[in-house]
Amino acid sequence: MSFEDKQIWLQVKERLKNELDVDSYENYFSSINEVYKTNDNIYFLKVKNNFIKTRIESGYLKRMNDILLDLLNSPHYFMIKTEKEIDYEQERMVETSSKNNFTRTSSCGLNPTYTFGNFVVGDSNRMAHRYATQVSNNINNLSSQQNLVYFFGDVGVGKTHLIEAIGNHILEVNPDTRVLYIRTQDFIEQYAKCGIGASSQQNYTDFYEKFNNLDVLLVDDIQLIEHKDKTQLEFFKIFENLYSKGKLIAITSDKKPKDLQNIMTRLTSRFEMALILDVSSPDRLHRINILKSKLKQELDEQNKINEFPEETLEYIATVCESNVRELEGALKRVLFYCDAFNHDFSIESAKEALQNILNFKNAANSMGNTDQEIKKLINVVSDYFKVGENDILSNSRKKELVVARRLCWYILRSKYDFSYSKIGEIFGGKDHSTVMTGVQEIENSLKEDVATKKNVENILKKIGKDTNII
Ligand code: ADP
Ligand code: MG
Asked: Per the CB 3.0–4.6 Å rule, which of 66, 108, 125, 248 could disulfide with 216?
């Protein structure tokens, strides 16, 4: 527990002391001298027994949360734990970590790094964030307007981060909740695998059971289920079952429900019933705040944050305007550049480090209408391979980057009819023969390698191009 957390609690306590009669204060609050732990926006307080816990929860908790809101200016919550509960939790933690460090992570599919604590709120995501924190603090008491939510927005704006934060937060507060995060492409694959082998009937039963018993289902990128009729039916069954039991279902997509195509209407009409919340690209101020937060995370241990001039962050936020993934990548690139060459974190260094992106933007701008399409392609490929946009545009020879980059080249060549030299120009001034060789590599592996074919098809689908690649 940090010094600040303790101070905040002492301020709340002081106000309670002024507001309550002496007995209530003495009985319930006077012995709580510190915050037991914090997690994201929750302050955990430890109390002796269940009687005190229930009294606080029924009589004072709302007022305590209001005081917190007043002090901190953003929604924060208290959570009361008894000594017994804490002991039990700690035992469980020891058990779990001695069995396998990743037990929790692997069974629920969540990436523990996506939390509310490192999610920066701004106008583009305020509603979505508010909803997400509210439901995850209230999972056992969801109303029928709350238990189905559909987040939509472009790639790289934080949808995955947000639904994973919901899952992580719920598990943090209540580790027994049965939470599952699944990417739609994994759902499709797992379902397809059930049909393989001798015991397929059993496989299907197991598959259904796995979802049937959940309290929280988090499904990422549902638009990818289009055209998969059988998988849609299965998903519909699972959905209906959980929904009828009032379980939490959170879905993300890059399209609004009504814009989804080739998905059966009984599913899309269910999605239309959801609370539909958009997440959009952050504005400049929000981008600056995100950069500050990321920088702080990068440098936390070194505590060097003050040495970093704000104007450089402002510069990065100005040139990287499309989405957060791009922004994150740009910051990493500048930090790496400054570190590797021992440069100051100045606007000049940032300009040099980001040269490729700027080249790209200039080239794209001079191309008029197609620039949005190129941006979208690079965006989609970066999302698909989980690599930074600017890394795709860089000269790095890392295997996954080479693959992602060449795929872009291949698509620009075959679907947009770009010349090799034009493609080279967009990708930071590469030679036309380099691009040509890269495109040929992809053409060759398309003949032999199923994975490449699948990757290309998936990407073409995402950018709305026909998937005919012969
Ligand atoms: P999406 O699922 O919408 O494509 P992601 O959730 O994968 O986007 O976000 C892309 C990257 O940007 C992730 O690394 C995520 O942590 C980060 N990110 C997005 N939005 C925010 C935010 N508001 N605050 C902090 N990081 C963010
Ligand atoms: Mg995502």
From this structure: 248
